[in-house]
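Practice problem 4.
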């Protein structure tokens, strides 16, 4: 997400208010706080990256799993078993790899991130 935010910072700043522009430059792009990833995904959707939000949700679910592990009650984690998390890790990694390969073939043009 950080790479995508950096590539599209100019477009994102046009959507933001003055104080939000500064926050995008000083905090969002260099750090990508997990507490703001959904908000940032929605901003990216507004500029045409329609499938970032579901992948962000999956990444945040895995982030919770990293801290809490499997949770049969689904209170702290969206995964009841380790195998469920492993399947999502494989799916998310495959998507990242697919996008990287597309970037390599596109010679660095920005269209690589759009499906």
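Answer key:
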């Amino acid at each position: 997400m950080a790479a995508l935010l950096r590539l599209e910072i100019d477009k994102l700043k046009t959507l933001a208010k003055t104080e939000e522009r500064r926050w995008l430059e000083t905090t969002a792009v260099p750090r990508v706080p997990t507490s703001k990833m959904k908000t940032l995904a929605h901003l990216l959707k507004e500029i045409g990256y329609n499938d970032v939000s579901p992948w962000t949700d999956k990444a945040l679910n895995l982030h919770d799993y990293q801290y809490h592990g499997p949770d049969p009650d689904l209170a702290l984690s969206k995964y009841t078993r380790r195998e469920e998390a492993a399947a999502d890790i494989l799916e998310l990694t495959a998507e990242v790899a697919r996008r990287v390969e597309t970037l390599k073939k596109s010679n660095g043009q920005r269209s690589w991130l759009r499906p």
